[in-house]
Design brief:
With 444 residues, the protein is α/β, with parallel strands linked by helices. Helix content is 45%, strand content 12%. A 7-stranded mixed β-sheet has the order 2-8-7-6-5-3-4, with helices on both faces. Strands 9-12-11 form a 3-stranded antiparallel β-sheet. Strands 1-10 form a two-stranded parallel ribbon.
């Protein structure tokens, strides 16, 4: 109970500070553990898993609480009149950050929602093909599988990537896979759609793919590209979508960007907006060809303006999150710290565990680093083993980083943020040593 009181009082004190003094009137703390006071963590929790759910900074949380109070003060006035202006501001600022036009960007609840919206708007035919990879995020992969399970049963092709590898090998194999897919049944090339779902940064392993080059290969081959960029915004600088030219691109704002859970930005360039005839759920302003007054489809942006009553605060929190990041020093300063610590921390963790990092040269590493765990590869993944690792880390050690099985080995993915220091990796190493020993004993 005393810990709870301490946490509540510190949050209250910080809220008062932020309410009375604007961020630009005070200097931010140094990156590292000094940043803990700007987040609402349990004081003993070591968080090396920011990449899963994100973590809301207290200054952004204060703004969100104020927005919630303002909405509740007069829901009709805010939602009918004021909301749209905040919504446009958030979209405008996100568009500038990712190198796009404002009217090519809308907000959705999460990346899976955005990808499902895109895939379900394609008019599929039996001979169409959806390309995924063996490392496609599990829920996205299941969404693709579902589309293949229902009429008209588009085909599914899986591109295999086994890490460790290099960007050069990935691109060579990707080019060959695309060539092979489009050359099959060449008589259908003029009518068959091929849609490739490409990760910008894979979830597990947490590695950066050469997605811009993969998109270019798709474009040259006449293949649609859908980029799952869930981990990109806030972690990958200089995205510049106008130059990369993906057909669709979706990124989560509540992970690395520090917006409130849950929020994502969906980018659809104007050349492809005709594909999106309805969002999910279908909005009240959907235009049907069977309407008596039908005069063409609704504009892309207007479709997403109001998709039913939800808590709109996460969408609007983007503005506060971007203000917070500017106060910290901007995108490059933030990511320089987190990237350098990810590289150093991964090597340190590997030395403590007696293993190795997946990407020793750093070519595939941004702010997530993958380190092999000391579990024999012949111990395969199971729900029991996963739970044993999870519970040992979270319940017994109060520390967490993702763990997974890939290419015959067990790994951890450490997500490095501005509150982390190199000493956090030592705590994680001790926890994993304990957890891995339990796994080996359990598997005997």
């Amino acid at each position: 109970m005393s810990d709870m009181k301490t946490s509540t009082s510190s949050e209250s004190a910080l809220s008062t500070l932020i309410s009375s003094v604007e961020l630009d009137q005070q200097a931010p703390p140094l990156f590292g553990h000094a940043m803990h006071k700007l987040f609402g963590f349990d004081s003993s929790y070591v968080n090396l898993n920011h990449g899963s759910y994100g973590s809301l900074p207290m200054p952004v949380r204060v703004v969100c609480d104020k927005l919630s109070s303002r909405i509740e003060g007069n829901p009709d006035k805010f939602l009918r009149i004021e909301y749209i202006h905040h919504w446009i501001e958030a979209r405008t600022r996100l568009a500038k950050l990712i190198g796009a036009d404002t009217d090519e960007c809308v907000l959705v609840t999460n990346t899976l929602h955005g990808i499902s919206t895109i895939l379900r708007n394609f008019e599929w035919h039996e001979e169409d093909i959806i390309i995924r990879t063996n490392t496609t995020y599990n829920a996205v992969s299941r969404a693709i599988r579902y589309l293949g399970d229902i009429p008209p049963y588009p085909q599914i092709s899986t591109f295999n990537i086994q890490f460790p590898t290099t960007h050069a090998d990935i691109l060579e194999n990707w080019r060959e896979h695309i060539r092979r897919v489009i050359s099959e049944k060449s008589d259908l090339q003029q009518t068959r759609k091929v849609v490739a779902v490409v990760d910008a940064i894979v979830s597990n392993p947490g590695v950066r793919l050469p997605w811009k080059e993969m998109v270019a290969i798709c474009r040259d081959a006449g293949v649609w590209s859908v980029v799952d960029a869930a981990h990109s915004i806030g972690q990958e600088a200089d995205i510049n979508l106008s130059e990369a030219k993906p057909d669709f691109w979706i990124s989560t704002c509540h992970k690395w960007l520090f917006a409130k859970r849950s929020c994502a930005v969906l980018y659809v360039p104007k050349r492809n907006q005709h594909v999106i005839k309805s969002c999910i759920p279908t909005p009240r302003n959907y235009c049907s060809p069977h309407d008596e007054d039908y005069n063409g489809t609704q504009s892309f942006v207007n479709l997403f303006e109001w998709t039913g009553t939800i808590d709109c605060v996460p969408f609007l929190s983007v503005n506060a999150a971007l203000n917070f990041r500017q106060w910290l020093g901007g995108e490059h300063k933030i990511n320089e710290y987190t990237h350098n610590l990810a590289i150093a921390g991964g090597k340190y963790l590997a030395s403590l565990l007696g293993t190795s990092v997946m990407d020793p040269d750093g070519e595939l590493t941004l702010n997530m680093v993958n380190v092999e765990l000391p579990i024999p590869g012949n111990i395969k993944y199971s729900l029991d083993i996963n739970n044993l690792l999870r519970n040992t880390l979270l319940i017994e050690w109060n520390v967490y980083a993702m763990h997974y099985y890939h290419n015959g080995k067990w790994w951890t993915r450490c997500s490095v943020q501005i509150w982390n220091e190199i000493s956090d990796f030592k705590i994680l190493a001790n926890a994993f040593k304990d957890a891995c020993q339990k796994v080996v004993k359990f598997a005997e």
